[in-house]
Amino acid sequence: MTATTRPTKPIEGQKPGTSGLRKKTRVFMQPGYLENFVQAIFDAIGGGAGKTFVLGGDGRFFGAEAAQIILKMAAANGAARVIVGRDALLSTPAASHLIRLRGTDGGFIMSASHNPGGPDEDFGLKFNTTNGGPAPEAVTDAIFAASGKLSQIHISDAADIDLSRLGEVDLDGMVVEVVDPVADYAALMESLFDFAALKSLFAGGFRMRYDAMNAITGPYATEIIQNRLEAPAGTVVNATPLPDFGGLHPDPNPTWAKALMDEMMGPDAPDFGAASDGDGDRNMVVGRGIYVSPSDSLAVLAANAHLAPGYSAGLKGIARSMPTSTAADRVAEALGIPAYETPTGWKFFGNLLDAGRATICGEESFGTGSDHVREKDGLWAVLLWLNVLAARGQAVAEIMGDHWAKFGRNYYSRHDYEALPVADAQAITDRLRGKLSSLPGTKVAGMEIAMADDFAYADPVDGSVSSNQGLRVVFTDGSRLVVRLSGTGTEGATLRLYLERYADRGFDQDVQQALDPLIQAAEALAGIREISGRTGPDVIT
Ligand code: VG1
Ligand code: CO
């Protein structure tokens, strides 16, 4: 027995954000930093004795070392088994699936998701619970509380485990089971979608470009799209996960997936383009000459999901995060099923999915998913789109045109002001928050305000209440603007301004132009540019 106990002291700031704990990689690499956080997780969940966990990550810098530390700590905390993806790799949705498939007690996902990786960039760790989903707030609060009163950590002195070989090995009495990271996930996708129809689609000359952004979906997309669906080699690009993502910012949006956008808007564009993020839970979808906003993508997928075998029985409900456009609500209404509005972050969908109230969920931040796992799932969304394209025999642009003609169009955009001084971000949100109660009935930029509040969510399943989830201003015509601060950044404060305007005709306007009145209203109400001195947002999606 080589398990040892080492004394430690609490480290400040180990508070999980929207999606796990994210810090600069060098912060995580400080001796004892990761160890403290992992011990806080074990302490918060009642210890590790006799339990089984899943472990994997997106392959970013420090992931391999972190995996060894987590394994040794699981062993010393008494765990019975840890199921690890080969080379410590697992996409976030694949990890969620494994947690559920194997009936485990939870899992550790080593990723900072869409944040860049490398020694000078970001690292992160997320704990998911037995349902496969991100720890709910009660658990993340308990982890933070435990991190504040640590006095010791438990860690084995055993040698590192070779994680490149499949099979089982012993680590101080704990079984380390190394599994193929792709196999179970690929089988799940095959059970949900009409792979025969997708194969014929590619056999018929349908052309696609999937940009894995040198991140975790490369092996998954290559196996599913090129090997199983027989799309030609080269369909999946940037397919090898690299520790620094090849210097790319693995965030699938028109700014960071620019090469894909240029190709899809160019003269020789393929029929369909897609990209995903560092840990594989986000997706961006682009048709030939047409970008699909994530909010629209959620609505279109919800309206057409029944065309895929896994959803042929229809949907139980649709859930979206509050800042996501209300396009999906119109689909829910037409289908006669409930629509739910939750705070930002996938953890809030877990109870609705577990209770069978919602089947499909989505966020404006390029996240879509369903009850097949308890995370958003980038490749799943791409395969559902492919299934819809195959079943309808139409191009993306035609499908979008039909959708808007039927439901109207929710023009939508998000403006991000990144790395603001924290005091500026606070001053902006304080200014708007201070006005909220006096706004209804008044006019700004020529539009009348119907309601304004600081969004709070009461979970309909367990009754828990989450407050301060974003400032929203809703106008009498249904247009909305939302201001909230990011909970995933590692530098200063990132302020997000979400803009939405509904139109029942005129679907070809420039998005930023269509939203101009909202942009003016936001500045008049919150003074973002005035207070920050910035001339405009850093990223527009
Ligand atoms: C952002 C997105 C949110 C998403 C979260 C995690 O959070 O806005 O919708 O769930 O990232 O996504 P924030 O707090 O920065 O706005 V990922 O792909 O990082 O797991
Ligand atoms: Co992600």
UniProtKB/TrEMBL annotation:
Its EC number is 5.4.2.2. Coiled coil: none annotated. Residues 14-147, 184-286, 295-407 form the Alpha-D-phosphohexomutase alpha/beta/alpha domain. Residues 1-22 are annotated as: Disordered. The keyword Cell cycle does not apply. Its cofactor is Mg(2+). It holds the Pfam family PGM_PMM_II. One of its GO terms (molecular function) is phosphoglucomutase activity. It catalyses: alpha-D-glucose 1-phosphate = alpha-D-glucose 6-phosphate. InterPro entries: A-D-PHexomutase_a/b/a-I (IPR005844), A-D-PHexomutase_a/b/a-I/II/III (IPR016055), A-D-PHexomutase_a/b/a-II (IPR005845), A-D-PHexomutase_a/b/a-III (IPR005846), A-D-PHexomutase_C_sf (IPR036900), A-D-PHexomutase_CS (IPR016066), Alpha-D-phosphohexomutase_SF (IPR005841), PGM (IPR045244). Keywords: Isomerase, Magnesium, Metal-binding, Phosphoprotein. Belongs to the phosphohexose mutase family. NCBIfam families: PRK07564.1-1. This is phosphoglucomutase (alpha-D-glucose-1,6-bisphosphate-dependent). It comes from Paracoccus pacificus.
